[in-house]
Request: fold
Amino acid sequence: MKKLYTAVVAATGGRDGHIKSADGVIDLEMKKPVEMGGKAGYANPELLFAGAWGSCYLGALGSVGKRDGIDVSNASVNVYVSFNEESASSFVLSAELHVHIPGVDLEKAQKMADAAHKGCPYSKATRGNIEVLVKAV
Reply:
């Protein structure tokens, strides 16, 4: 495996803490979401993960579109990352990716969405570890 890029982010304080990337691009105060007893208006791990996954996923969808000769430059994905309680002391993530490809029928869009999910590095990282639904919309 050839390493092409390494992101470095320092985190302190957990869900009520701070993150800062080595290059200074990210410098955020973190808070639990309101639904978990935190404050509105702050970043949290699930928001950041959803955004990162969505960006990466659209890159994979671009490769699928190129392979299939379909323009996906106007495609979008809404990524829903949920923090779930399994028991009083055990938590897991789950996710849904709702993929919209303008001008492509739902059946073909679903096939393309599934193919992108197979190739996306974030999808690969979660495969078999969390429940994920990929749905063309």
Observations:
- The CA atoms of residues 44 and 52 lie 13 Å apart.
- The beta strands are 9-12, 18-21, 27-29, 76-87, 90-100, 131-136.
- The chain has a mean pLDDT of 97.
- The chain has two domains: 1-43, 45-136.
